[in-house]
Amino acid sequence: MFLNKSILINWYPISFVRFLIFLVIGITFEINFLISNYFLIKLEIILLILFSVYIFIFFIHQKTKNFHFRNWNGIVACIILICLGISLVKNKRLEYTFYKEKVEKAFAYTCVMQEPSVKKNQFYKGIAKITKLKIRNKWENVEAKIQLYFPLDFQPANYGDIFLINSKPTLIQGPKNPFEFDMQKFLAYKGVLFKDYTQKKAVGIGSQYESSFLNFAINIRKKCVEVFDKNLHSIREKAIISALVLGERSEIDQEITIAYSGIGALHVLSVSGLHVGILFLILSLIFKPIQKIKYGNWIFWLIISSLILLYAFVTGYAPCVLRAAIMYILVLLTQTLNRKVQIYNVLSVTAFALLCYDPFYLVDVGFQMSFLALLGIVYFYPIINNWFTFENKAANFVWNTSSLSIAAQIPTFALGMLYFHQFSNIFILSNLVVIPITVAILWLGLFLLLISWIPFLAKITAFLLTKITFYTNEIVLFFEKIPYSFTEDIWISNLQFWLLNGIILSLILLFAFRKFYWIYVCTFFVIFYSFLGIFHLNQISKSKLFVVFQINKNNAIGFYEGFKKNIFTTSAISENSSLKRFYFARFHKQRHSFHPKKEIYNDLKVIKKENSYSTIYSFHNQLIIHFKAFSNSLKKDLDSNIKFDLVLVSNHALSYKFAEKNKNLSKNWIFDATCSQKYFDKMKKYLNNNIHYTPEKGYFSLN
What we know:
Helix content is 55%, strand content 15%. Strand 15 (614-618) and strand 16 (623-627) form a beta hairpin. The relative contact order is 0.06.
């Protein structure tokens, strides 16, 4: 009555899409709004009642054939799916946090590795499962995941290794600096709540394999890595090949990663649906003759499915790989059953199954990007590809590949800007070159693994593989250096992300249904999006901000006025570009949306000549004193008549006696990460004012 029939969707051929939509609504609601655990039991009772109502209405509809009963059945089914999504997240979260309080009380524990450890900066890093805790000289059985860091002189841990660790697990903290990446939330979605830097405290006490199949897959992966180590002698090229064929990215250098990301080809370095699709074609060609024998179609399906699943496990069973693996298995199954397959239903069934297994896949970037990219290819590729036809095979190949890139880019455009803050301006050109070469590298890489026992043939294959990969890297680096090849430092808010998707969706609906009112909808989203951007820049231009950053064992303060900034920090930070990028870049880019040309704040006034002990700043009618080092002359140099808006203490610069006598020096006392916990705890006894310790509370800001 209220909707034009031309925009209504015929759900019958894609009925499972509706199930997925309402399951996603339930999962999203629980992830963002956290319904109280009190309602969990009631929720599952409601689910049982609703399911009973659904069955009752279904039987009545079958007997009466009343159309209204079918509508009510659909409504009940939607509510069931929303409640199911909420229940899945709630149960998963309870499973992850059930032993949280016990783990925090432990002084020693045993754990079993859930994956092989990999080298990361100055440590070997890996996820383990705590199996026993020592609490008050008593061992208790638990199940909780922990991220372990082993020193580099420690032998890399393997899957199934059991360790006795005499230390206390620490809870992973949230972000301590403005707009810092939230590692706590990222790992919590994987069920990892704790971490421990083992140093010399870990003792191997045996091994235990929770999954023989997973151990088998990991051993195959290890053997494959050994084959590459033996035959490929160029470190850079070997790292790319290992990433592309096996999903092993630990050895890729940062320059190559940035280059691939800049031209929009980073997906080729992570095993994804593209790689599974290539493997599917290779296996289909190899085992095609089997289909000619009796029950050949079923044998063919069983072999292809088993090998694809094995490849998914060998490469780390990422959500995007599992999505592609399950999808190809289902498509092949429907072909084996001689039934027509509706790809939207296959996609929905695949996503539904994965989300029921782990609802937190929904917030996984790989899961989101891979499903949206495939959805774009399914819907847009036939439309775009039909725009032009070429008789020349080369021209036709170029257009087919370009159509594929455009189709995948449309639904992932906003997501890429939200997560990666950049957009490749030459993604069509780069994918046109890189993807076909990626296919060749994957073919040769798999071929090398198969014939590695034939030295002469392995040597030739390794030589070709190394050369092709070398020139691929050079092409990527060349593309990345082309002026304006990519736009970087794009920072959008969550609201802007949804508005951008609204613009894209309204344009799609405009071309799909040819209705003029979609232009008004699109215009509304464009105006709202532009207004938010202008409002943000206007707010920043008027802002004045002082920030004390939280940097372990270092101090850093920043003065900001509009788009100008001035940062004071230690040489250990200022001379290290990677640390500066880690601690400051996200805040500066998010705040300014671009790099400010002028980096020194001119209105910053140093009242007292800066020395090695203390400095007084005047910042927009606010007095700030920074005590940087201990000095016996502090009392003499300090004017007792001056009251400060903020006192910042570094390096245990103040004595307890000084703090007790001068506690009214300011209402705000800040202690940064150069001060120990013991020192701060004692200082709290002498200072009754507003006191802030950055290692505990994170950064401090003053407007």
